[in-house]
Every structure is written in C-alpha cells, then in structure tokens.
Amino acid sequence: MSSQEILIFTTLADRDLAEEYIAEMLQNGIIISGTIFPEVALLYQWEGKLTIDSENKILLKAKAEQYPAIEEYIMKKHPYLAPEIIRLEASFGSDKFKSFIQQKIAKGG
Fold first, then answer.
1. Where do the H-state alpha helices sit in the chain?
2. Beta bridge partners of 7
3. Which of 9, 68, 74, 77 has the fewest Cβ atoms within 10 angstroms?
4. How far, in Å, CA of 4 to CA of 28, rounded?
5. Which SS3 state, helix, strand or coil, does residue 92 take?
6. How many domains does the chain have?
C-alpha cells in the first residue's frame, strides 16, 4: 500500500521565483508546505561540457492525490527545459505532526 503523503524535490535558480511558485501552489491548495534550501552548487554535463551553476533546492510536502496537479504546475511554469521533479512516498512521522497536517488539510491550508 502506498502512502497518502509525498515529498517532491525540484530546483530553481531564482529564489524569488521559488517563493512565488510555493506561494501559488499553497494558494491553489495543491501542497501542504514548501521549503527552500539555501543556494547550492550544481555540477552537470551540458552539450559535452562540464557546467557549474547554483540553484535552490525545493522540498514540497503534499497529499499523493495532488501529485498530477503539482507536476502540471511545475512543467508549465518552470524555466528549465527538463525541470527536476522527484517524487518520494512518505509517511509524515510523528503523531503530533501528522495530526497537524490533517488539520491543515481539513481547513484547506
């Protein structure tokens, strides 16, 4: 049986844009919360060359049934050609935190 909760990782180079995306997804009710980690270095191969950039890692918490809406949002709005979207099944740990999350969902955020 899969979990009802998921974690989604994505990235954006622009922190202001990351905050805007999280705020819109919260207002649309498709995520429970979002965390922006401090800017990190990213190394990758692009067109045969080693590239070093920086970007913000974003962690979204959501109910599993919201995943299609979250993916659609990211794919439509993201400036990258192939944005990172990593979905992880999760169980939101402690009973106290799980209760808090359930209350937030019941109240619509």
1. 15-27, 67-77, 95-106
2. 61, 88
3. 68
4. 19
5. coil
6. 1
pLDDT, tens digit (0-9, with 9 covering 90-100), for 53-84: 999 999 999 999 999 999 999 999 999 889 99
pLDDT band at 97 (very low <50, low <70, confident <90, very high): confident
| Full domain range(s) for residue 32 | 5-106
Query: By the 8 A CB rule, do 55 and 12 touch?
Result: yes
Give the CATH number for residue 83.
Answer: 3.30.70.120
> What six digits make up the tokens of 101?
């999350």
Give the integer Cα–Cα distance in Å for 67 and 74. Answer: 11
Is residue 41 within 8 Å of residue 76, measured between CB atoms? no
Nearest to 6 by CA among 67, 74, 58: 67
